[in-house]
Amino acid sequence: xxxxxxxxxxxxxxxxxxxxxxKQYTPKPTIIKNVVRAFIVGGIICSIGQIFxxxxxxxxxxxxxxxxxxxxxxxxxxxxxxxxxxxxxxxKFGGAGSIVPVTGFANSIVAPAMEFKREGYVMGVGAxxxxxxxxxxxxxxxxxxxVGFVYFLLH
Amino acid sequence: MxxxxxxxxxxxxxxxxxKEGQGPLGKTFDKVWEDELxxxxxxxxxxxxxxxxxxxxxxxxxxxxxxxxxxxxAGDLLNQIISSNFAAxxxxxxxxxxxxxxxxxxxxxxVGSMLIDxxxxxxxxxxxxxxxxxxxxxxxxxxxxxxxxxxxAQWTVTGAGSVLLGSDGAGPRVTSxxxxxxxxxxxxxxxxxxxxxxxxxxxxxxxxxxxxQLRPVDYNLIASGDLGAVGLALACELLKQSGMDxxxxxxxCGVMIYDESQDTHSGASGCGCSSVVLAxxxxxxxxxxxxxxxxxxxxxxxHSPTSALQGESIPGIxxxxxxxx
Lengths: 155, 325
Description:
- The complex is a heterodimer.
- By secondary structure, chain A is mainly α.
- Chain A is about 75% helix and about 0% strand.
- Chain A has one domain.
- The radius of gyration of chain B is 18 Å and the shape is globular.
- Chain B has helices at about 20, 45-60, 80-90, 105-115, 130-140, 195-210, 230-240, 255, 270-285, 305-310; strands at about 10-15, 30, 70-75, 95, 125-130, 155, 160-165, 175-180, 220-225, 250, 270, 295-300, 315-325.
- In chain B, α1 (about 20) links the parallel β1 (about 10-15) and β2 (about 30).
- Chain B folds into two domains: about 10-165, Stage V sporulation protein AD (Peroxisomal Thiolase, Chain A, domain 1, 3-Layer(aba) Sandwich); about 175-325, 3-Layer(aba) Sandwich (Peroxisomal Thiolase, Chain A, domain 1), CATH 3.40.47.
- In chain B, α6 crosses α7.
- By secondary structure, chain B is of the alpha/beta class.
- The longest helix of chain B has 20 residues, at about 45-60.
């Protein structure tokens, strides 16, 4: 009698066993290299920020105003370098070192803005501007509201 | 399936972006674009134009009047396969759109050969495309976003490849094909698509050899579509543990197309990958007599950004076509 059953899977490896094979064959992320690079790149970006703070202070701005002006300058630089197509190269090298500072935030807004301009200014740029930065803003603002409320209750 | 009257590959044509042109196979491509936009207003339009260029290139090379072509089979990676649809609008041929993710070239050749061997067509044009930037923005992050890619991540090829199949004439022949099953080994990491596709490729290879009663040594070259370095190693291991030693003729188009210095991590992916390697390097080597019998196993990851976000694993597929010189 002919075999009427479905053809059995020929692979003799199960899905569960495959997971361990994947771990074995997938290269590990280069953590130490990434951490060192992030430290250096992040440090450089923050040092540049500090230079601007000192510069603006020497022009006679108060400490708080000088740091606001420096932040604005760094955002401008981050946006400019994104526009010039340089920031993604810095990001590839520096990882978190270039994502965490305010320049990284500028990058995450400007990159989608450039990308989705072709879909128009309303449904393209308007709708997609916060695709990357959106979650940070939502949870950042939500957390600050909670913290503010707790602070209010304690005082 | 084995074709009674094996269809002939009358001509082939490949168009690639600059990065692929700088790769080790750069010289085998018919045309290399200087930049990834090539003067068009968007990457999507550029990709569609690239596909048209490849298909027209194949038609011109065979010097076959366009009216003699019975069907155009095409596919790509974008939502609703728009690159193919818009290319088909310009080609004005009876059009069958295909989606097999990155396996579409092998799928197209298999279906095209079935149409010809079944007597439904004399000439079938097959073409597929992918574009690094259109794929990045659909599946991953905006291209100017500064982020690091995983070590197992693959680089989507900017390229379009096309072949013209005919019922008779001179050239390499498509002798058999194995349509793959969807295999899902619960891989959820979208940055490790090679691992997601490897079981499907291994399954198809095992089925093919079982059906045909052949062994890997019967082929000069067995090339998977775009498993990348990680996926290729995994497929080898899976096959070995299932009792099939692939020997030294097993490689991957995604490993062949870039070299180490191009910083793509695990290699290439995309429909364009296997199509331009086939249309360029592989078919040229068959015509030169260097390779007699080649199996291309197109590999596809059948997920979408939405399914991945909803926590679904990545189903894989592999389609094999055998081409003999």
